[in-house]
Amino acid sequence: MATRRGRQAPPCALLLLLASMFLLQGAPSQAGDTVAAGRPLSGGESLVSKRGKFRLGFFQPDNSSDHWYLGIWYNQISLHTTVWVANREAPVTDPASSQLTISSDGNMVILDHRRSAVWSTNVAGVAPNSTVGVILDSGNLVLADASNTSVVRWQSFDHFGDTWLPGGRLGRNKRTGEVTHLVAWKGYADPAPSVFSLELDPRGSSQYLLNWNGSEQYWSSGNWTGRAFAAVPEMTPTDASPLSKYTFGYVDGEDESYFIYDVTDESVVTRFLVDVTGQIKFLTWVEAAKEWMLFWSEPKKQCDVHAVCGPFGVCTENALPSCSCPRGFREHRPAEWLQNDHTAGCARNTGLACSDQDGHQKKSKNEDKFYPMPNVRLPSNAQSAAAASARDCELACLGNCSCTAYSYSGGCSLWYGDLINLQDTTSNGAGGSSIWIRLAASEFSGTRNTKKLVIGLTIAGFVAAVTVIVLATIFILRCRRMRSLWRVEGSLMAFTYRDLQFVTKNFSEKLGGGAFGSVFKGSLPDATLVAVKKLEGVRQGEKQFRAEVSTIGTIQHVNLIRLLGFCSERMRRLLVYEHMPRGSLDRHLFETSHGVLSWETRYQIALGVARGLDYLHEKCRDCIIHCDIKPENILLDEAFVPKVADFGLAKLMGRDFSRVLTTMRGTVGYLAPEWIAGTAITTKADVFSYGMMLFEIISGRRNVGQRDDGTVDFFPSTAVGLLLDGDAGRAVDGRLGGSADAAEVERACKVACWCVQDAESLRPSMGMVVQVLEGLVDVNAPPIPRSLKVLADPSKYVQFFSGLPST
């Protein structure tokens, strides 16, 4: 108490404080790995397995709640990751007075602060005071005989949570018919069982099934083929695959059938789980990167999970969040949505006027109306109705108070009750059907309200016009005043077009150009050299352009080109960058007139670019996806320090950017598969482009060339082949005469191949790429992506590119 009043604590008090801190920190290790009668586990104590791999104790998944659970988590990784929870449906509120102990009947129990049992192993026929609880290095919690702990009476591996650890058996007891399940958490901070579960087919086949609510199957692994499950070929281990460190086996015995997997390398930390999203995921931990790496997941598309967005929820693939509510609806349980549990779905803002809950119509059925949603995958459980036209179909739905939606496309489909599995297909370009959702009339504006709205909009438009004129006048006056200031230290400068004409001598010295415009050399009054880029095709308004430029202008990193200022007048959009005296990387790689870059310089350039992209993806306030990584967009300063240029232009270009990118000459070879497929992109699109560029840094040549016999030579396929043959050194630019660090060459080739994996989930983050290139993380030889195999075939390569738009 004395220290709280600000007085200095006496030396003895400090010693007592340090001693108590030491005892608290040492408590878990003193508790050992065993709980026994008379030796309960409570409060901040925990048990640790013999070799320190797993820890058992009370934990709190969400600091904002007072729910505490007894769980098992990894003890030797930096991120708290829970693998099993005992009292999933019965949290305790006071861990200090709760405990795990051995009860008088020999069972392991959790007692709350009232000493009431909230969880028990519930094993019958156990003698009193004859058992102990032990946490094993496998992550398995067992109730064993006190005199011989190898005699197990109960184990957590028979009662999985959401996670399946190596050594665990997920299967079916043929004598009792009992099937073990993996059941997902309801939310990332709520261990309670959700509606998503995985089980071995109870009907007797060797396939695993993902179920919704224990009844609706929405994914199957396919039967066991002897090496893998038919629908999961990714799990087939090969010498070049990271899965080579795993063993897999399916056992079909007389008493039971089960699947088991294990790791041959004890340093590998891995887990298999049913995620909150309803997908199964297989992950491994990379400590240097402080993250879990995803090997594969099923189903691959989030929206293929049954009812993942709940009743009336709309799923959108590759969106964050993936679930939303349509017009006229709101999140049914907003708190659960914040935890990524969308299964409660959406609720109406206003109840329907027509309702048959009491067996009769409350009001006129015509008071309900329909809201059209185009480009959707239609919900489940449609019922056909006789209708000669869309109007007849609408009337058929209006005529039944239980009808909530209809669709007409040559035939009439009606939906009754909740809409399940509604998906918006607009973003992935897959097209779709249209559905008309029934809403209360109040969700639509009436004639009177429309007139009021028109009047209001007219007045608002007049006020807005006056405001724009005033602001434009202020802006013009300010720009004129700033012409004499040129630069403001530490901030972006707004130039006028006339200013930049003067700086560049009327754009007389062109440095280069690309899909987004031309670049001209300029000099500010203080002799600072700049590069002025005239953007072409940018159609954003003034406010949007300025906001986005302001965001990019605040980014500063040694490996990112610095934006000094901009100009936005009428339809003119220009950006002012610092000048890079050595120009772009492509000139030094592919043009002999600039000399040959040493291996050391190339490796530092590759590492610098990786660091710059990692900053854009992970360190900025807003994640920025570059979308056009290639040697032409890597600029070099006097000391050959690389700087990523044109970053953020995808954001500036808006929705038109994907069209510009896919038709841009010289960029096709850097496009990730998701660009070609037209699906939404993530930062992993940059990772793919980086990998393709890294191949060119290694070889000093374009990835696509022509052999003497006229056939196509696709270098990445050659490089991967050399890597797998243990001869990666032959992939290096021949002009270096073999002068290259062998370990760095092999490391760079591995990174490049991992980056260009077909599935974006298999590609590393740029942060992990940095770790690998720095030598902090070692990676196995990657599998050969299917795209590299296809492009290695000259005939297929020609077909692939002939299908792209011409430039």
TrEMBL record:
Coiled coil: none
Annotated binding of ATP, by residue: K534
Residues in Apple domain copies: 354-440
GO cellular component terms, semicolon-separated: membrane
EC class: transferase
UniProt keyword list: ATP-binding, Disulfide bond, EGF-like domain, Glycoprotein, Kinase, Membrane, Nucleotide-binding, Receptor, Serine/threonine-protein kinase, Signal, Transferase, Transmembrane, Transmembrane helix
TM region(s), chain numbering: 453-477
Listed EC numbers: 2.7.11.1
UniProt GO BP: recognition of pollen; response to other organism
Subcellular localization(s) per the UniProt record: Membrane
Signal peptide: 1-31
Protein name (database record): Receptor-like serine/threonine-protein kinase
Organism: Panicum hallii var. hallii
